């Protein structure tokens, strides 16, 4: 009986609700033991103090995460649930394998709810809002993570039909606005935060990914304006900016039937003869080759992005922006932002030629 109570206390206190409090106590205890080594003692005491003051208590707070069938949203839902948050995970298909895995976790604790929601459908969003309002814990909705996203088949702007622009915009921009507007009153009430997912592509503009890049640039502007508007309500707006995580997001297979090569060539075959003649089929094969190289060099594990999302949700004072990329991508991105256009355009052109 006593052992069961001890086990329950450990699970509830350490793994479910106040894990940061437990870690801070460890830091303080070790610092006390190392009192004869002042530098180590001070560093450990500082670490323990930062754990106490830098992370909000997850108990009784809820987080809504969109796009949880796979990828970042799926992993984030599991991590936030492990930390003690009540998680509402929206999936485009509530019967998908990813949704079923999350349901099994929720069945054990009652703190992880899977909701079928298409961010482009106002009726779905309204139903999700109604469900969330009925199942909120005592401290309300703390955060909304707008993770749901739609990639597009690679192709130049002139090649891309309007229905693809509309589809990508409907998810990556209008879907974010629709979900945010629906749940913002709840977040304002808790003085929580909105977390939006942008992309390195918004900094480092690249040919052959124009329709997707447009949406992420728009998300950056939307988030910046929303952050200013929400300051009076003490609501924070955070942007997550992943680098090259094409593998982690299943880019090569998430654009409909077949992979991105199939879809790019199908788009090419639908162009009229004048456009095909102007660009040449060699141009298509060159861009496909570049995209394949980017996939091969991409990061396959979503951990770094999920950690940034977690910090955006759980930190008392989160950054306005988390740029999650390897050092070479960061150097290139910062360079493109600060170089004169006449130079950055030549660099991009030379890099594209080198990759092929």
From TrEMBL:
Transmembrane segments: 21-44
Record Pfam families: adh_short (PF00106)
Superkingdom classification of source: Eukaryota
Keyword list, A-Z: Membrane, Transmembrane, Transmembrane helix
GO biological process per UniProt: steroid metabolic process
One example GO MF annotation: oxidoreductase activity
PANTHER family the record matches: D-BETA-HYDROXYBUTYRATE DEHYDROGENASE, MITOCHONDRIAL (PTHR43313:SF36), SHORT-CHAIN DEHYDROGENASE/REDUCTASE FAMILY 9C (PTHR43313)
Family: Belongs to the short-chain dehydrogenases/reductases (SDR) family.
Record's protein name: D-beta-hydroxybutyrate dehydrogenase, mitochondrial
Lineage: Eukaryota, Metazoa, Ecdysozoa, Arthropoda, Crustacea
